[in-house]
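Sharing a chain and its predicted structure for anyone who wants a worked example. Both blocks are below, sequence first, tokens second.
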Amino acid sequence: MPRRTALPTLPGILAAGALAAAVALVAAGAWAQQRGPQALPPATPQAALPDSVKPVTLPADHDPATQFNSTERWLIPRYFELLRDRQRRAGRSKIYARALPAGLTVMPGIGDTLPATVMAQMEPLPGPLLRELPPRRPDTQRYVAGQNVLLIQLSSGRVLDTLDRVIY
């Protein structure tokens, strides 16, 4: 004699639907957390910054639109940290002192103005890093000076922001 199967009841259908919805939400959340080469920094970038990066105190009249944003503050140190790790694994771990551009004796601070002769000798950030960063703001450029990265206004030579000791 064939066995009879019970028809699904309304509470059973609702429970199965809730289970399917929960599985779909978990799968969507896992997909959203996957990282790619253009991944954004974590939600709390201060927790992900390397130990060598410290918070910068800015003058009260400083405009937030003329400073490094959170993505840049996370990506630039991370790039140089990964580069240093790659060099260490390749056996090239000797540390060379990074000199300031000719014409500078001390590291410029926020608000200092650089002469045009010094700006002509400054080296921009590496190309692979520039491709990862968001587009630069008009009339600004990011430069490497010693172990620091500077955001400089091109028209006046004024230092808008600095990332201290990010390059090893």
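Comments welcome. The chain has a mean pLDDT of 77.
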